[in-house]
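User: Can you predict the 3D structure for this chain?
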Amino acid sequence: MRILVFSHYYSPEGNAPAARISAMCSRWASLGHRVEVITCAPNVPSGVVYPGYANRLVQSETLEGVRVTRVWTHLAANKGSMGRILNFLSYMFAAVFFAWFRRRPDLVVATSPQFFCGWAGLVFARLRLRRLPFVLEIRDLWPDSIVAVGALKNRRLLGFLYRMERWLYAGADHIVTVGEGYWEDLVNKGVPRHKLSIIPNGVDRAIFWPRSATGFFEQFGIKNRFTCAYVGTIGMAAGLKIVVRAAERLRDLGRRDIAFVLVGDGAEREMLETMARQRGLDNLVFTGRLPRETMPDVLAATDACLVHLRKAELFERVTPSKMFEMAAMERPIILGVRGHAARLLRAARAGVCIEPENADELVDAVCALAADPDRCREYGRSGRNYVVGNYDRGVLAEEYARILDRISHAPQPYPAEEVLLPMPGTAAQPVSATLQQPRQDGLEKAA
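Assistant: Here is the predicted structure, written as structure tokens:
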């Protein structure tokens, strides 16, 4: 197939959307498909273009067999509203314009988050002289996610965005989402079941495998301490004030043997650093954004990994992709996310669940793990066995490619797709995307 992919984020950016679509595209290319991605100059999350790149009108390179075309956008940091909206809109118009000059593909794929990227794919697929099959990937629900974190409160604008969301779903020939929670939400929003497939996030076993501790955090002044690290975007959804409060309590308890590390950047990093500095917390360290290729060393140096989101109903449907990489590295996980993510963690026996935004429970969890190395190793081994057996990204990418192949060749209406849906507590197996109701048996047993 000749596949054209619209993605706002792509390698060398290291956030979850970029990591997933970059891995999928490179795998599709290795299977013999001709894949081209239209994206931006890498700049997440600061809005500053990475070294070696420039925000030119258009530029191209080849990464792991994938042709990557980068178009000019209005750059903006991952904070605020107006700058980011301009960033999203400028990408949509530039991507559609420059895609017009590319060779006609067999299929168009567009991936969220930010559904203006989805609209770029839809507009291009429909404006061609002969209609192109269009597959929309949903890995974040817009505008639900921006409402959940309070980033946008204008009712008229939100109403318009919700109408755009419905039009986008209606215009897609097929929708691939990353988890059962989003599958349920999309069905509840009126998307026909026959248009939906699930390809969950996973792990690249060639990159994330157990290794000896690296001492990576010594450069940041952390040595001979039990280290609990959060790795990812330090944004509004993460709710990381909990770490500041937990670090303060540990200091008051005299626990100088434990330290927290926040690895990454985002809209709330500066505010959290100010809070830590005002409280004089030397047991909380910020590393800033680090290259994605250093992540295995970062995780190897971590004694326990924190995965956390704000206490919001929407996030109960989310399974953070970083969980798979942490488990594959045999790191115990402290999880502050309810719902699907918590059920997966319990099924994998890969760590401890805490109430989101509850600093006391975070302190209790990290102290318990620091006092029990055998328990940490048991969580690590169990978690790796589970994710490697059920969430191998190479296997998932191949299943995704088979779905795209059927969509690109099938007459409308497209037939039901068989998707690979690893369920908590079960082995990976084909599951029909046209189930009359979401599967609950495995989830209920795991819960």
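The chain has two domains: 2-198, 216-390. Confidence is low (pLDDT under 50) at residues 413-447.
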